[in-house]
Amino acid sequence: MNRLMERYLRLDALPTLFCAGCGNGIIQYAAISAIENLGIRKDTALVSGIGCSSWIPCYLNMDVMHTTHGRALAFAQGLKLARPGKKVIVFTGDGDCLAIGGNHLLHACKRNIDITVILVNNHIYGMTGGQKSPATPENAVTKTSPFGAYDEPMQGAEIAMSLGATYVARWTAAHPVQLQKSIEAGIKHKGFSLIEVISQCPTQSGKSVYGNKDPAFIINYLKQNSFIYKEGMEEPSGRIKCGILLHDNDKPEYIERMENKTEQYRKRL
Amino acid sequence: MKISIDKGLCKGCGICLSICPKNVYGFSANRNSYGSSMPEAVSESECIGCSLCERMCPDAAINVEEEQKCG
Ligand SMILES: Cc1ncc(C[n+]2csc(CCOP(=O)(O)OP(=O)(O)O)c2C)c(N)n1
Ligand code: SF4
Ligand SMILES: [Mg+2]
Q1: What domains are defined for chain B?
Q2: What is the ipTM of this complex?
Q3: pTM across the whole model
Q4: Cα separation of A32 and A30, whole Å?
């Protein structure tokens, strides 16, 4: 067994329930190595919603809150307000975060509350058997889009930027080192960070999105069909835009603002 | 480098075979606890210790370590 993972995983719960080659395990490794590198295991609380991707933190020997579908961000914000000293990391899927949880995403981004979100975008509802999600690409045939999806897929990272998040990055499961670095940067950033990971669900999106259920095929596809964005560059069309898309240190953070406000109020008394 | 693959954790997804820049892995006749084919570090001596396979294994099954030198 991997020596690093051995120190973090709940050995009695292994092997994980994830299908062979699922991207969730790759993201789990990146998150653990970020936490280990920053030395924050004891100061971190992990929160997730419902879905296969929301099981990522449940296998860890850490403080974990596995909540209800779509509500991970609501619980995480409550936790952060009650325990502002904790680093709060949220694991959420494209269905969990963008569909049922979209409203919570809107408000958490707008507040710029100091939470780090890892949005696992496998373009589908993996856990429930392959229904279309808001992030499913056009023309993908899923259980609930039998003639092919006919609406434009939602872009989680761009939506977070437009709503007021202050650290936003996108990587794929084929970029494990960059992903780890972005998770570290997101945790260190004081404000709302969202790291979108384009991940593979070989079982469902393998069939519906890539037309091939081989995990190695999808990893190669993600590597070849993505590019790393640098400011000012001409962007190739039809490829996944990866990289650090936004890093804004100027916007005040929510809890800081709240404390300033209460301080001002106290002075007036 | 010493590469070990955990038979109880490996699910035989084949990612390590495809991403290793030195093509260290090949499928073996061995079966993991799931009953699928297991990779084997057939060219272990070629390993440069980049740890990509450790990071990309979704099941924490792979460990790559500097070989302990005796004496
Ligand atoms: C309130 C509620 N509605 C619906 C469900 C059923 N449900 C469970 S997981 C899921 C979708 C998960 O999709 P996603 O967040 O993309 O996670 P994935 O499994 O793809 O990682 C749904 C609809 C539920 N558990 N609770
Ligand atoms: S259904 Fe998809 S997302 Fe869920 S464990 Fe299997 S491969 Fe992963
Ligand atoms: Mg999903």
Answers
A1: 2-64 (3.30.70.20)
A2: 0.95
A3: 0.97
A4: 6
